[in-house]
Design a protein that fits this description.
- By secondary structure, the chain is of the alpha/beta class.
- It has helices spanning 2-16, 58-67, 128-131, 145-148, 159-173, 186-191, 197-206, 224-232, 250-255, 261-265, 267-273, 302-308, 342-350, 363-368; strands spanning 42-46, 71-73, 75-78, 84-86, 109-113, 116-120, 178-179, 182-183, 217-220, 236-241, 279-282, 312-313, 356-359.
- It has a 4-stranded parallel β-sheet with strand order 7-2-1-13, covered by helices on one side. The chain has a 4-stranded parallel β-sheet with strand order 9-10-11-12. A 3-stranded mixed β-sheet has the order 4-3-8, covered by helices on one side.
- The chain is globular.
- The chain starts with a helix and ends in a 7-residue tail after the last helix.
- The relative contact order is 0.14.
């Protein structure tokens, strides 16, 4: 109870700030004897503690850390003037109050992103200064009405601000905290002359994160950008897999290779992935698919196949609300927003031997995994 109370006090404090320095933090070093990756399964706070606070905000990341998350996960997109900011997508309408800002009404556009037509407001049409005038809102308010009460509190953070927060909290938490960014829409941003890969690596380097032992993973649904990253950094890389195995990574669509996520999930495909990645991040259905009645089916061989290829396995996304849970773990409350038995689903996946997991409620897996001792 005391830890939860301190976490909420911190959340309130973070929400009250309107500016965090964009300069590299020099308040702690990542070169410690502690190793966050000794924990198993690793708990990766998906967009922060996004089950409790609007996603991709300093409040969500801070709460996740005080809950004990090993890593925080920012999705990275680019501004028009070349700054990395944390949003689930480059479209801003679902996660900010931009639609209520008349000064930006003329920025509304229809674009094709990774082959899909979208209408809205896009980060690449805004400078960082303009992005900073916006405020975050809850992306799925019908499922998380409690989060919606915090609409308007938080700014959109830069990548550097997230690093600064992590480094600050490492001191008070007295433990290592990892950073797990996803590079979003890599091919799309490259075509706009706003490539992210070198900038992400250089930002990490300036902050002291170098080498395979650094508490960092860089992830992507695309393939070629990860292969490129392998040539410029020793930081750990993770290949993401879309939930539909028949889909192709968008860069492979552009290159017309025919490569699908299903191909990459086969034993031979996993061996190819292992040539450039340390880990794989599949939708959790690759590991335990759902039956027609939405109950959990039988585990596949994905984890064993990945381990045989030398890869760690970090599936996504574990969420506590009924709408996301298998039928047998849903609460009797018929509301989609009601909280079910996430512990039950987690235990089923723990038993498959996964090495980590992405979750919106990091306190849940932390409560039932074995204790981690940082040494």
């Amino acid at each position: 109870m005391a830890n939860t109370f301190r976490a909420w006090l911190l959340l309130i404090a973070v929400g009250s700030f309107t500016f965090v320095s964009s300069a590299p933090a020099a308040i702690s070093t990542t070169k410690t004897k502690s190793n966050v990756d000794k924990c198993k399964p690793l708990v990766i706070a998906h967009r922060g503690a996004s089950g409790y606070v609007p996603e991709h905000t300093l409040g969500a990341y801070a709460l996740a850390i005080t809950m004990g998350a090993d890593y925080v996960e920012p999705d990275l997109v680019m501004t028009r003037d070349g700054h990395l900011v944390a949003r689930h997508d480059n479209e801003l309408g679902l996660t900010t109050d931009v639609a209520m800002r008349p000064e930006f009404a003329d920025r509304f556009k229809t674009k094709t992103i990774d082959g899909h037509e979208m209408s809205g407001w896009f980060t690449e049409d805004f400078t960082l200064a303009e992005i900073k005038t916006l405020r975050a809102v809850e992306r799925i308010p019908e499922t998380r009405p409690g989060n919606a009460r915090m609409n308007g509190i938080f700014q959109i953070p830069t990548f550097q601000e997230i690093i600064n927060l992590v480094k600050s909290l490492q001191i008070s938490q007295m433990r290592p905290i990892g950073i797990y960014p996803e590079i979003k829409h890599s091919t799309y941003f490259k075509r706009l002359n706003l490539p992210m890969e070198n900038l992400v690596v250089e930002t990490f380097r300036k902050n002291g994160y170098t080498g395979a032992s650094a508490p960092v993973y860089i992830q992507s649904f695309e393939v070629n950008n990860l292969k490129y990253l392998k040539t410029i950094t020793d930081l750990k890389l993770l290949q993401l897999y879309e939930s539909n195995p028949s889909d192709q990574p968008y860069d492979q669509v552009v290159a017309r290779t025919g490569l699908t996520y299903a191909d990459m999930a086969m034993p031979y495909g996993l061996k190819k992935v292992a040539k450039y990645a340390t880990a794989v991040g599949p939708d959790k259905s690759y590991i335990i698919p759902r039956n027609q009645d939405n109950t959990l089916g039988e585990p596949t061989s994905f984890v064993q196949d990945a381990h045989a290829a030398g890869l760690k396995v970090h599936p996504y996304t574990f969420r506590a609300e009924n709408t996301f849970l298998p039928s047998e773990f849903r609460s009797k409350n018929p509301s989609k927003a009601a909280i079910g038995d996430l512990y039950g689903e987690l235990r089923a996946f723990f038993a498959t031997g996964i090495d980590g997991l992405f979750t919106d409620q990091p306190d849940k897996p932390i409560a039932i995994r074995e204790n981690c001792i940082y040494s």
